Amino acid sequence: MLDHDGYNRLLKINEAASAFTSRQEWFQRLAPLLGRPEYREKYDLCLVHRHFELQPGQRMVATEVPTGGFVTQPETVPNPTPGDIIPSSWTAAGTAFEWTRVKVPEDRVSSPPPELIREFLEIVGDGSVLGLSLALDPLPEGRIWGERLDRDSIQQILEIQPAEHWVDAESTAAASWKVAISSSDGSQVETSLIACIFCPLKPVHSPEE
Q: What is the pTM of this model?
């Protein structure tokens, strides 16, 4: 897993979004792998990024809230990791950088297997801005997972939003996708935006996110 120093060196969302170019080409290359039945419902494609900085011993941990959705914030996590906290996002090399809290053991989902990481890494390359994350629950048509930031509380708040909010490209960034082959000959790729982040996308060299 990434320690606090490694996490703090991750790109901010505006930097990661700017670095992810030729998106349709990457979706086309990754769809045969991530669309396999054994992976499709477990893992999504994501941007490897951060919003906040961590202190020694801290990790970004998501907790489900009663109103639906999740709140992710820095937590001091002991070592060994408690059984109710599992990895939820990984770099291309398979290093966990975000975590989530499960309510019961049955909710635990295993990390991507070595063969998935190996094939993913062969496609995107080490140090890629692309990674893997646990699949979010599917939503009805016209809805999307949207993330907003509460900087005062140092929280990332993930909640269900109307999909039309995504059309404002000046203030949102795509963060997670599900990709798969949608035709028998492999010529058509199905791409679904799973989650976006509602935050101003300032210039890459801005000192603030």
A: 0.90
Distance set, CA 145 to CA 6, 23, 44, 51, 52 (Å)? 27, 20, 13, 17, 20
Give 200-208 contacts, CB < 8 A, sequence gap 24+: 200/170, 200/171, 201/13, 201/14, 201/17, 201/170, 201/171, 201/172, 201/173, 202/14, 203/14, 204/14, 204/15, 204/18, 206/14
Pairwise CA distance, residues 54 & 3, whole Å: 9
| Residue 77: partners with Cβ closer than 8 Å, 6 or more residues away | 57, 58, 59, 61, 85, 99
- Asked if the model's pLDDT at residue 55 lies above 90, the reply is yes
Q: How does the average pLDDT of the chain come out, rounded? A: 89
Q: Which of 63, 64, 105, 65 is nearest to 84 (CA)?
A: 105
Phi, psi of 38 (to 5 degrees): -75, -15
Q: How far apart are the first and last CA of the chain?
A: 24
Identity of the residue numbered 38 = E
Do 14 and 173 contact (CB within 8 A), yes or no? yes
Q: Which amino acid is at 43?
A: Y
Cα gap 76→79, rounded to integer Å: 10
Taking the C-alpha atoms of residue 15 and residue 98, their distance in angstroms, rounded to an integer, is 18
